[in-house]
């Protein structure tokens, strides 16, 4: 399980391939990112999380030759899918219809409200269009005349590659994150939040509507850390300004922590932020005249991409799921 001190870590074995493909990685001599220098509470106080990849014992190994039908995700086959323990729920306790649909893996709660008002959801044979309607778990719920029920929960973590859209269906037939995890489970899972087409990194997919709402709702303030590649060096003055707060068209925004990821090449920075606003990291730097040429999310709500190459996924562990459910992660 990732700890606070691993927030900035990227597994060396999983990222070596990307390093050769993406150019210079911004690691310090110890094998990780430099510590962020600025944060809201402590001014110039060093920020605790840092990399510390220890490769001394790894040595060198022969390159592995793989056939054309090699599947990097075969080790995460359905046969090895984790069975998560369900939290106790009183079967007689009423549940909102939109929450029921979300927990059944049909859609998100927001989308459920749209389907309900559109008149495509029925309960015990009667169409329900009123938002906020509560039902019992034993009621017969139909969506587009097909019976739906609350499914077992599935949690999949993906290291999203670039040129891939975060959607369940794309009218332009582009590669989607769902294409990458289509072999993970029989249940319909959905991405939690969004990453731009060319933003890479940590992305969670699940059919747990309750958890998805907690991880994306602004009031829960889940931490996100990004590795940002800029078209030019970031000045110290602009870094100070980002830490203090920048006024954008939709309000003021500030980083919780920010630092250079390489003290020599200052066109790469690490930024910690809680906001879930659309394209917020890109907009922060664009407002100061910088262009983000590459953006990689390395941390989301306690989860990292450690051990996953670009495009690979894995199931969350029972411990990770419990931490997320309890809100133990930042």
UniProtKB/TrEMBL annotation:
Listed PROSITE patterns: PSI_RSU, S4
Pfam families per record: PseudoU_synth_2, S4
Q: Give the family per the record.
A: Belongs to the pseudouridine synthase RsuA family.
Residue span, RNA-binding S4 domain: 95-162
**GO molecular function annotations of the record:** isomerase activity
Q: Where is the composition biased (Basic and acidic residues)?
A: 10-28, 41-53
Record's protein name: Pseudouridine synthase
- Stored SMART domains: S4
Annotated transmembrane regions:
none
The region called Disordered is annotated at: 1-77
């Amino acid at each position: 399980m990732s700890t606070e001190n691993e927030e900035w870590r990227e597994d060396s074995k999983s990222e070596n391939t990307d390093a050769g493909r993406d150019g210079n990685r911004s690691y310090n001599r110890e094998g990780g990112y430099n510590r962020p220098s600025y944060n809201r509470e402590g001014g110039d106080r060093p920020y605790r999380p840092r990399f510390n990849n220890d490769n001394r014992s790894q040595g060198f190994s022969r390159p592995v030759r793989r056939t054309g039908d090699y599947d990097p995700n075969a080790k995460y086959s359905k046969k090895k899918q984790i069975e998560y323990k369900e939290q106790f729920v009183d079967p007689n306790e009423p549940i909102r219809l939109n929450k029921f649909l979300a927990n059944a893996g049909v859609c998100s709660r927001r989308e459920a409200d749209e389907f309900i008002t559109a008149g495509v959801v029925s309960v015990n044979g009667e169409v329900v269009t009123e938002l906020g309607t509560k039902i019992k778990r034993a009621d017969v719920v139909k969506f587009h005349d097909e019976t739906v029920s609350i499914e077992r929960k599935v949690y999949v973590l993906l290291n999203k590659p670039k040129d891939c859209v975060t959607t369940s269906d794309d009218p332009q037939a582009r590669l989607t994150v769902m294409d990458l995890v289509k072999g993970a489970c029989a249940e319909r899972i959905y991405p939690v939040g969004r990453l731009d087409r060319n933003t890479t990194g940590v992305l969670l997919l699940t059919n747990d509507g309750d958890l998805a709402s907690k991880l994306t709702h602004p009031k829960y303030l889940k931490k996100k850390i990004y590795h940002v590649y800029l078209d030019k060096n970031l000045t110290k003055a602009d870094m100070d300004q980002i830490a203090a707060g920048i006024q954008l068209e939709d309000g003021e925004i500030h980083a919780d922590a920010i630092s250079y990821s390489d003290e020599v090449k200052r066109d790469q920075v690490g930024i910690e932020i809680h906001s879930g606003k659309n394209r917020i990291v890109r907009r922060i730097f664009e407002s100061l005249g910088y262009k983000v040429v590459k953006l990689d999310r390395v941390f989301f709500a306690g989860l990292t991409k450690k051990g996953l190459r670009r495009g690979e996924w894995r199931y969350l562990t029972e411990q990770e799921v419990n931490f997320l459910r309890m809100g133990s992660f930042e």
